Automatic annotation (TrEMBL):
Name by which UniProt lists this protein: Aldehyde dehydrogenase
Domain Aldehyde dehydrogenase stretches: 13-479
GO molecular function: oxidoreductase activity, acting on the aldehyde or oxo group of donors, NAD or NADP as acceptor
Signal peptide segment: none
InterPro entries (alphabetical): Ald_DH/histidinol_DH (IPR016161), Ald_DH_C (IPR016163), Ald_DH_N (IPR016162), Aldehyde_DH_dom (IPR015590)
Annotated keywords: Oxidoreductase
One protein family per Pfam: Aldedh
């Protein structure tokens, strides 16, 4: 028996056809473990297993499906520390982040979808007068939420617990079966999730996990004829290719794509609050998150003070070992991604931006670290202000009045989450309604875990989270009958 992680297909742990590859700790550059490299044929077998399991699982009573999710939540909570240690090693997230926002959120999401209310609702009866179609009568109707079928879940590397849990839990709650294709950089945590679901009583084939670095594996689980829906979190470029495949077969899709969040800071804003919120870009997943307020639009009355305070904030952040309790900024996921982020900082300099702080590689012997970097004197047509960098880099653009600020915010290919900081709450809400974004945070970067999540424009298609995820992973069926 191999000492590497095996695939999970049809309720069995299967040796991968393509052997194994190392998963690297981005903080130490040492191996965390060996991940399985599935073949395209094994990926298709996982889809076939999900198809075979779909009928029985979809007919299982919702209460029984909920019980499986509830048990999985308890198992994950009970293994919080080892699961979080693995997540920290795979992703470079700090211990606190791995425990609370990765594994902790995953457990909460399984618990949330273990208590789904009835997925049907009444429609007002239709009263028909006598006429050519027949005598007078009443027609009743129900709208039922039915499972979509087999769902392929392609997940992101920045959170290998909360992201797949946010797909798998509502999909299973609605009676779908799933095939999970985790990000190749950190797939081991997703296999632990599969173990928890297996231990919780999920029948064979209801959950399947196949990983691999070869793009053919992902292509196989997206294009399989057994798949009815694809749920993807990742870059807009990859999302576009997946959408093309789904479009050919009219396959349902849920796309959570890139972002370039605008943070409008008005003259009357609480600057301490704005700095703390914007500063999460430097620390939260080291900026590797699509919701980060990476594009700051500062009204001229506070522009200089905001830049100065952001620079001071960034310089105070401790960079280093994610396992150390006082570490705030960990590494980015890989050497390749570090080089990409650094290339954007160099590009910003060439475009005319001022590097106020950061811009250099921290003096650490090992690890893929990028110093929190603040770019000032930016304009909105610079590439650093328009393209998703996905690292601890913030650019600041000045504006004069409300109309200009809104125009600059909307002048973007993306529209995931924007932010507004203002002491005038009425203006903040007025501005929020004008922003072309799927979500807007007013004086906060916090999230409500029942609020819909998704983007406008190239930031995605569809909405999930809370009850919106139940809608995303179901089809509406109308049933009518004579009264």
């Amino acid at each position: 028996m191999s000492d590497g992680q095996r695939l999970f297909v049809g309720g069995a742990w299967v040796e991968p056809d393509g052997g194994y590859y190392p998963v690297t700790d981005p903080a130490t550059e040492e191996s965390v473990g060996r991940a399985p490299e599935a073949s395209p044929e094994q990926a298709r077998e996982a889809c076939a297993a999900a198809r075979e399991a779909f009928g029985p699982w979809s007919r299982t009573r919702p209460e029984e499906r909920a019980a499986v999710l509830a048990r999985a939540a308890e198992i994950i909570r009970g293994r919080l520390v080892p699961y979080a240690d693995l997540a920290r090693a795979e992703t470079g997230a700090t211990t606190a982040t791995a425990r609370s926002l990765q594994v902790g959120v995953a457990a909460a999401r399984f618990r949330r979808y273990a208590s789904v209310e009835s997925a049907e609702w009444a429609i007002a009866p239709q009263i028909n007068e006598a006429g050519p179609m027949g005598k007078a009568g009443v027609t009743g109707a129900l709208a039922l939420r039915q499972p979509v079928g087999v769902v392929t879940c392609v997940t992101s590397y920045n959170n290998p617990w909360a992201n797949p849990a946010g797909k798998v839990a509502p999909a299973l709650a609605m009676g779908n079966t799933v095939v999970v294709k985790p990000a190749p950089q950190d797939p081991l945590s997703v296999y632990r999730m599969a173990e928890a679901l297996q231990a919780a009583g999920a029948p064979p084939g209801v959950v399947n996990v196949v990983s691999g670095r070869d793009v053919a594996v992902g292509e196989a689980v997206v294009a399989s004829e057994d798949v009815d829906m694809v749920s993807f979190t990742g870059s807009t470029a990859v999302g576009r290719r997946i959408a093309e495949v789904c479009g050919r077969d009219m396959r349902r899709q849920l796309m959570e794509l890139g972002g370039k969040g605008a943070a409008l800071v008005f003259d009357d804003a609480d600057l301490a609050s704005a700095v703390a919120g914007i500063g999460t870009t430097f620390s939260f997943y080291s900026g590797q998150i699509c919701t980060a307020p990476t594009r700051v639009l500062a009204q001229r009355g506070v522009y200089e003070r905001l830049v100065d305070q952001l620079a001071q904030y960034a310089r105070r952040l401790r960079i280093g070992d994610p396992a150390a309790p006082d570490t705030v900024v960990g590494p980015v996921i890989s050497a390749e991604h570090r080089a990409r982020v650094e290339s954007y900082v160099d590009l910003g300099r060439k475009e005319g931006a001022t590097v106020v702080t950061g811009g250099e590689r921290p003096p650490l012997e090992r690890g893929f670290y990028v110093a929190p970097t603040l770019l000032a004197d930016c304009v909105n047509d610079m590439r650093v202000a328009r393209e998703e960098i996905f690292g601890p880099v913030v650019c600041v653009v000045p504006f004069d009045d409300e109309d200009e600020g809104v125009a600059l915010a909307n002048d973007s290919d993306y529209g995931l989450i924007d932010y507004v900081w203002s002491g005038d709450v009425a203006r903040a809400f007025r501005v929020a309604r004008r922003l072309r974004a799927g979500g807007v945070g007013i004086n906060t970067v916090g999230r409500n875990m029942e609020a819909p999540f998704g983007g406008f424009k190239k930031s995605g298609v569809g909405r999930d989270v809370g009850s919106y995820a139940l809608h995303a992973y179901s089809e509406v069926q109308a049933i009518v009958w004579p009264g």
